[in-house]
Amino acid sequence: MATTIKNKYIPTISPVTLEERLDNDGREIISYLRNVSVTFGKGIRAIQAVKGISFNIYEGEVLGLVGESGSGKSTTGNAIMGLVSRKEGQINILGRNLPKNINKLKGELNKFIVNKTQMIFQDPANSLNPHKNIYKVISEGLDNIDVKSAYMKIFDNKTLVNVLKIIKKEKYKIDYFNTFDKIKYNEYQNNKEYLKIKELLYVNPLGSIEPINKMVITYLKLRMEERNIFTLGKLGTKAIKRKLVIDILGSVGLSERILNRFPLEFSGGQQQRIGISRAVVLRPKLLVADEPISALDVSIQAQVINIFNDLKKNFNLSILLIAHDLRMVEYISDRIAVMYKGVVVEIGTTDEISKHPIHPYTKSLLAAVPSIDSHKKSLSDVQYDSTQHNYDEKTQPSWFKVGSTGKRFVLGTKKEIEKWAKEA
Fold this sequence. Notes:
Elements lengths: L2 E3 L2 E3 L2 E3 L2 H4 L7 E12 L6 E12 L3 E5 L6 H8 L7 E6 L2 E2 L9 H10 E4 L3 H4 L6 H6 L7 H23 L5 H6 L10 H18 L5 H18 L5 H15 L16 H13 L5 E5 L7 H18 L2 E6 L2 H7 L2 E6 L2 E7 H6 L4 H8 L30 E5 L6 E4 L1 H10 L1
Parallel strand pairs: 6-11, 6-12, 9-10, 10-11
Antiparallel strand pairs: 1-2, 3-14, 4-5, 4-7, 7-8, 12-13, 13-15, 14-15
């Protein structure tokens, strides 16, 4: 248990193994890294950008990855996306291991990664093809998937979400839907899958559950009629693709009227919304957002962050949010990992990291955030000096669990962490 000295909270400290630190605690892991190292160059010119990092990204969470420029944040994101080769370690996405050499990322595995992971870049203007109109920019990725299957999966998921909202709103408790909500089903492959989900979600509840909310019955019948328009082939691939694009534009606050315009006709904030639409139209499970707001005006940064928040809730997205602006990271992230010179030095819940930082580098990052608080220490008081550690061949840092939640881990020696904890 934690102790209190003169009304000051002192968190508990205990050493942990790699397995304990990365225990998923029953949560579904979308992606994990194990001892990943990335090196650029060879021989005396070699630079190790990422040094043996390990962490999990869980379903439906936003993991903020923070650190100063050159800390290895973007390289980590690129490695997860299969954009850079790695020297050592394992990267796994939804049960599939990525090869260390990106030149071996081919065929079916490459298609799988493209469909399940997407990236949003720092500069939206440079990431959008200026010679293609908005419809072509957003719909380009849809050419590589079964559009009908993708749309039906999205349609059925939306039906389920809305039914659960009705039940909750009307204070009805129908165990069937609560059970169905936990069912994990993959992308539909053929008409048998359409019929299977149709039977489970649309047909069974109408006759097998009593009493049932009349609003639910009415809604399911309307949705089933709309669903039949697609399953019976009354709409072609082109029409379905256009509907997918229009729907995703609406989710980021843009109108279908922009479809025939070109990227350079828009402001930076609008371009980033278009970039987000392009990434999310494929409904990936993991989104890597690399400094998505740093190139935008302060006045619209919060708007873009709110879009990420909405997408996370509506599509159950897992997001790796790479940033150096801790204000925005605190606002949206469930957990935060802090990197310094290629090494993760602290990871934990947003509340723990932002309110009770332990590692001195984390404290220096928080001190760099502008504040009107007159009681806050000045930046000069908390500057980080890596030479304070005195690490050598005999004395090396290791991971410790700090606090009672079991979700915050700090890298250092036991003596260091005991000292830092008292100063937290």
